[in-house]
Amino acid sequence: MPTIALLTDFGIQDTYIGVMKGVIASIAPQAQVIDLTHAIEPQGVQQAAFALMTAYRYFPPKTIFVTVVDPGVGSERRALIARAGDYSFVAPDNGLLSYVLKAYPYAMVYELNSATHRLKQVSNTFHGRDIFAPAAAHLANGENFDRMGSRIRDVVTLPQPYLRVEADSLEGEILHIDRFGNMVSSIGTIEWGGEDQCMLKAAFGARRAAQILAAGALRIACNGAEVVGLSRTYAGAGTGELMSLVGSSGFVEIAVNQGSAAQALGAKLGDRVVIRIG
Amino acid sequence: MPTIALLTDFGIQDTYIGVMKGVIASIAPQAQVIDLTHAIEPQGVQQAAFALMTAYRYFPPKTIFVTVVDPGVGSERRALIARAGDYSFVAPDNGLLSYVLKAYPYAMVYELNSATHRLKQVSNTFHGRDIFAPAAAHLANGENFDRMGSRIRDVVTLPQPYLRVEADSLEGEILHIDRFGNMVSSIGTIEWGGEDQCMLKAAFGARRAAQILAAGALRIACNGAEVVGLSRTYAGAGTGELMSLVGSSGFVEIAVNQGSAAQALGAKLGDRVVIRIG
Amino acid sequence: MPTIALLTDFGIQDTYIGVMKGVIASIAPQAQVIDLTHAIEPQGVQQAAFALMTAYRYFPPKTIFVTVVDPGVGSERRALIARAGDYSFVAPDNGLLSYVLKAYPYAMVYELNSATHRLKQVSNTFHGRDIFAPAAAHLANGENFDRMGSRIRDVVTLPQPYLRVEADSLEGEILHIDRFGNMVSSIGTIEWGGEDQCMLKAAFGARRAAQILAAGALRIACNGAEVVGLSRTYAGAGTGELMSLVGSSGFVEIAVNQGSAAQALGAKLGDRVVIRIG
Questions:
Q1: Does C178 sit within 8 Å of B26, measured CB to CB?
Q2: B227, CA 20 to 30 Å: which among A9, A103, A263, C166?
Q3: Hey, is A65 helix, strand or coil?
Q4: pLDDT tens-digit profile of C150-204?
């Protein structure tokens, strides 16, 4: 029985997530449900797409991801189910899957439109409960994609995060601020989705990027502060001091040893980050 | 093996919930435990009763609900186990089950007083761990209600939420504010528990209520603001604008498209909501 | 299949915990994972050690605790696996296990250094995902301690919480503030770890301690406020009034009936608590 992983902006102060799990348990009682996170900022589709991209590969094959961040619930956007590699996804058609799908050029995406794979009563405002959770449970039960929807090829895609490449600099944006106040940027050293975009490597070529990283010959600037070089760990600067490092998902972060960089810099999602080389 | 669903005001910043799950796993290792929510406001018995009423029907038959919001822990209130339809409930006797039990006139309620279905050491202050969680686990193992307590017929009942019906208006109160700042009122279009109370239908008759809803001929006022008509979804007003709609549980809500109505109106639980007809 | 319980300072706003569960499900799909808590204050090793000590005994035998509060991640501290009584523990070697291990003089502790029981790629900053979660999953699969690490006898140990004993008083500190604002002190009536430290019993002898408790002949002072005697429950004072009691884990707490003592007294972790006898 596959794992079902949930990623939403519903928070956990209400019964929304509990109810979705109740629906899943009603249809697929053997499924194991894991919360990926429910603390995506309300309507933060890009933040969710980024979180999903950095997380999904740590789950077992056959995992079904239910991802619901949905500014347009009940308006005209479609519901999707997708098969990409060993994984399945259930999501609104608003770009949430775009970074994951980049890695799978042969992914198959369906509009989820079967009336028999949803709850009998479908509300206008809680498709997580009425449409997405039931669909995931039916997939967990082995239901066929073809019986649940119809193949589409015009999935809504998010724009890439902000990126400006100059001769000796690379400008990106803050995509996530974590519990510790670490500011995770869109500037990565690994590949973005399946391609090389918004990466040191893409901007400067693989060889020079490797040289830059090895030499630590970078200055990272954000909100008026600047850090020189990359630390290896969060303990790489004095307590309370600002630093930069490559985080566990392969993206450049700004952090404070045992403190909050986001608080120190008054940072928020979308703030610009500039990396200057040399 | 049945599902056990937990609803408390314990929050998740402490180990209270983890410990209750440890106790359940010790007694009924096969039980699947689902968090309904732990973010009920401290001592918010009515909020919990409302949350339970709107959520329980989405869980599979045989689900056992452990609901602990307990201003009087260790004082004289009794502990209850109840069987209502296909569901079981474990709760303090302070009204928490009253809205659910309204739907089940033939529910059987017992005082949970067996000394052999609790932990050996019972503290004065954490009955969730010492009494309620073990009782749920024993129910999950198939234990008989009769062996765990004695039948009672004088369960404590909450008063209905505030309601004043005039010729052309209906006044209720805010029972829940969700993560998005949506303000959920006590004024519903479906049935309250098993009866028709505090409902458009009850106030104005089924026919006129249906006409009112179809025509959207309402003005909803709260904390000095007023909204005209009911939107179909949260996208039914301009971004940042106030609106009203019937939420996914069947109750009238005040919301802001991609914003927080509660913040915009400075709302809190118990605030009055007035619906004027025509 | 054993239970795996997680205790961290990671919070739940990010995908860190979800990803750790994905890793566990990949290696040990049958394991049942329980969140003990993820809201330990960032880098709060002592708070975590205290939480673990008060919680672990409520879990079933064979439970594996993964505890990650790790100011020095990636610096020189070692990773540990430990067997103590019926329980196993995976933790950084920074004192997190010290209060639990006090209760088990025959505990066996290993440095976790096997390269085959971690993820293939190990980051510098997220050992919870790359080292600790995989180790717990392998233990759940029945792997032998000896194959995963090498026995050590110089585990890092936390100092005991602050304690000063005078002829007629006992001074401790606040170790935890819970969701309700209850302030849990280091002064206990049961045994601390396996020994008698920082306890009424240790300070004044078993007989006098029992007399003191029975008579309630104490004044508890903190941050300028003083409470006389011990209540039995949180309802033991008037609504909104300050009180003191022995909490569900056996430690003296300061509380407010249906309110927050921590807020009333402006309390924080480490604040001094003085108990005066007679």
A1: no
A2: A9
A3: strand
A4: 999 999 999 888 878 888 888 999 999 999 999 999 888 755 554 444 567 767 7
Give the residue ranges of DSSP H helices in chain C: 16-27, 45-55, 98-102, 127, 133-140, 145-148, 200-204, 206-215, 261-265
For C235-257, how does the pLDDT look when each residue is reduced to its tens digit (9 = 90+)?
Answer: 888 999 999 998 888 889 999 99
Site of tokens 């004082």: B75
Give the pairing type, strands B32-37 and B3-8: parallel
CB-based contact A178:C15 (threshold 8 Å): no
Q: Which two tokens stand for residue B128?
A: 């969730």
Question: Would the pLDDT of A277 be above 50?
Answer: yes
Q: Is A12 on the interface with C (CB under 8 A)?
A: yes
Given CB atoms, is C15 within the 8 Å cutoff of chain A?
Answer: yes
Tokens of B140: 């999950």
Q: What is the DSSP string of A60-124?
A: PTT-EEEEE--TTTTSSPPEEEEEETTEEEEEESSSTTHHHHHT-TT-EEEEE--GGGS-SS--S
- Measured CA to CA, the distance from residue B77 to residue B72 in angstroms comes to 7
Q: How far is B265 from chain C (nearest CA, A)?
A: 25
Nearest to A170 by CA among A202, A203, A201: A203
Q: How far is A127 from chain B (nearest CA, A)?
A: 9
Rounded-to-integer distance, Cα C68 and Cα C59, Å? 18
Whole-number Å distance between alpha carbons of A45 and A95: 7
- The alpha carbon dihedral of A117, A119, A123, A125 has a sign of negative
Q: In angstroms, rounded to a whole number, what is the distance separating the alpha carbons of residues B198 and B210?
A: 15
Per-residue DSSP letter, B115: G
* Cβ–Cβ below 8 Å for C29 and A5: no
A192 at interface of B, judged by CB pairs closer than 8 A: no
Residues of A in contact with C17 (CB under 8 A): 35, 37
Q: Is the ipTM of this complex over 0.95?
A: no
At B74 the pLDDT is 62
Whether A16 has its CB under 8 Å from any CB of chain C: the answer is no
Q: What are the beta bridge partners of residue C245?
A: C231, C253
| Ramachandran quadrant class, C144 (left: phi over 0; alpha: psi -120 to 50; beta: rest) | beta
Partners of residue B179 in chain A, C-beta under 8 Å: 10-11, 13-14, 16, 42
Please work out, in degrees rounded to the nearest 5, the angle formed at the alpha carbon of residue A231 by the alpha carbons of A228 and A232: 160
- Spell out the residues 6+ positions from residue A99 whose beta carbon is closer than 8 angstroms to its own: A49, A50, A52, A53, A158, A192, A193
* Across C221-234, average pLDDT: 91
Judge contact between A145 and A83, C-beta under 8 A. Answer: yes
Angle between helices C16-27 and C133-140 (to 10 degrees): 30
Helix H or strand E segment including B151: strand B149-152
B258 lies within 8 A of chain C by CB: no
